[in-house]
Amino acid sequence: MTSPSAGSPLPVSEKPSMHVAIAWGVVVGVLQAASPLAFWWLDPATAYAIGLAVIAPVYIGFAVADGRVRIIVVECVVAMAFVVVAAAGITGPAWLLAFGLAAHGVKDAWQQRSRFVSGTRWWPPFCAAVDWVVAATIAIEIVAGVHFRP
Q: Would residue 109 count as lying in a domain?
């Protein structure tokens, strides 16, 4: 059997399964949930908000790669909404960050179902897993009494 040439798509049987994408999403979610430890000089709310805001350019990039103007406009508007939620979460209630990440996971699940943006087969389930792990971690921290600001 010859391997596919560079640039040609992999046969369906050789593409990673969604289970692999979700498993890696959980791993990355755990790492992102620990991000306040890596950025010890920042408030946890700021570290989590940066994580939420950094998602925006990824989705804008996928929209640009898709190339349809409607998709680009919608993804830019949605991305900016999540950036606003992230910014508000820096000084507002930490629940905004948990809500923003959970809502982004719902958006990912919708995107996976609808195939709204082409060429993102594994990304939405991966990102949804990351989002929901971090959202759950923030919710648990809030309930446990973790202070998000000095």
A: yes
Would the pTM count as exceeding 0.90? no
Split into its structural domains, the chain has a count of 1
DSSP code string of 55-77: HHHHHHHHHHHH--HHHHHHHHH
State mean pLDDT over 52-59: 90
Which residues have CB under 8 Å from 78's CB, separation 6+? 59, 107
How far apart are alpha carbons 107 and 1 in whole angstroms?
A: 40
Domain contains 38: no
Asked whether residue 95 is domain-assigned, the answer is yes
The rounded Cα 54 to chain-centroid distance in angstroms is 8
Rounded to a whole number of angstroms, the CA Rg of the chain reads 17
Domain that holds residue 99: 43-144
Q: Distance of CA 115 to CAs 3, 46, 112, 136, Å?
A: 28, 32, 5, 26
59 within some domain: yes
